Amino acid sequence: MKLMFASDIHGSLPATEQVLAHFERSGANWLILLGDLLNHGPRNALPVGYNPAAVAERFNSMAESIIAVRGNCDSEVDQMLLEFPITAPWQQILLAEQRLFITHGHLYHPDKLPPLADNDVLVFGHTHLPVAKKQESVYLFNPGSVSIPKGGFAASYGMLNDGVLSIHALNNAGVIAQVEITP
Can you name one GO molecular function term for this protein (predicted)? Predict the structure, then answer.
């Protein structure tokens, strides 16, 4: 199974268009959206091309390929625009030998882990900082932000392919970080 991850879109239509273009080219089975899809939030400046209604339309056109979780900037009003569920605070995806625990990152994060077994993967967003590493007995994976990157990093998205979690620059798909997950 090949998965693509995007987080912290914050209503940016150009970022959404780039994410969807990468998704189409990637051959991924699912696009995992890690929250903060439409609203820019009170602490963020408006991202380039801020157009939440158009972002909702673009994602709705491929709703059957999306798994999403709720971010701290997402609300019931946002759900009214979207044709796929976004109100769950977390989801789980079972791989052959381990579990991906999918969340935005404001409730569960590296400093407050959910119950995870050895070699499970915490997939989160929220910080806008890319992370791909093993910490003690679990893996941490944050694809960064596609619209408001922080820490001097490029806008980025993530992939899971053949047991490798990788983070790619949105503008050129160059690899920013990666980690091989082993059962």
Answer: metal ion binding
